[in-house]
Write a structure and sequence with these properties.
By secondary structure, the protein is an alpha+beta fold. About 50% of the residues lie in helices and about 20% in strands. Helix 5 runs antiparallel to helix 6. The protein starts with a strand and ends with a helix.
């Protein structure tokens, strides 16, 4: 390209021109895609987390709500050990280690956490390993299943009570049959005895005890 300056001198310009339209479109598409998926994650009713170097590098609002902490309190400051109950952490720690070493692609765990306010909740986590900022990390989802766990325990307790009830009912039925045999034979024995005889009084005592036993079984 040539041009003349204010003095009338010819000035030469040399350079290159590159059409970056396609690249700009690609960058804008990537940005829109990232924004779209970030929006999905942010609005998800399931907790989402990324762990790297034993620290949470990203968590979504639902994850914060489950743990009772803010984003700034968790990210780059806290690790799973800060929330998981000590007795459950060996299971969680082993799973994280295996995913980071490649020995385990995905994992599904149920364990307990302690929120910031001290409340213990049961959560279910599903996670896998990814490359995050060019380094290996663990990504996963978290679901609060505390209510479901309580209902499950109540159902189990109800089933146990039902089983005990059936067992007790079966025993009562068999016991009533035995009492019936005793009572029937005592009443037959009394027919051949006279009131006032010692054996007759023995039979009456057996008859009364059998009747009380039948009432007890009915209760």
């Amino acid at each position: 390209v040539t041009n003349r300056n204010e003095k009338g001198e010819v000035v030469f310009y040399e350079g290159t021109v590159e059409n970056i339209t396609d690249r700009r479109y690609a960058e804008e598409a990537l940005f829109e895609s990232e924004e779209k998926y970030r929006s999905i994650v942010e609005e998800s009713h399931v907790g989402v987390y990324i762990i790297q170097d034993d620290l949470f590098r990203f968590v979504n609002p639902t994850f914060c709500e489950i743990h009772g902490c803010t984003y700034n309190e968790i990210v780059n400051r806290m690790s799973p050990r800060d929330f998981v109950l000590p007795e459950d952490f060996p299971l969680v720690g082993e799973s994280l280690e295996k995913r980071l070493t490649g020995d385990l692609k995905t994992a599904e765990l149920t364990y307990r956490i302690r929120r910031k306010d001290g409340e213990v909740r049961t959560v279910k986590a599903i996670g896998s390993s990814i490359l995050y900022r060019r380094r290996l990390a663990v990504i996963g989802t978290l679901l609060d299943v505390s209510k479901e766990k309580v209902l499950e325990e109540q159902l189990l307790q109800s089933q146990k009570l039902e089983t005990v009830g059936r067992l007790a009912g079966g025993i009562a039925h068999d016991f009533n049959n035995m009492l019936g045999v005793i009572l029937g034979n005592v009443q037959l024995a009394k027919i051949n005895l006279c009131e006032g005889e010692q054996t007759y009084e023995f039979c009456r005592a057996i008859e009364k005890a059998t009747a009380r036993a039948a009432d007890f079984v009915k209760q």
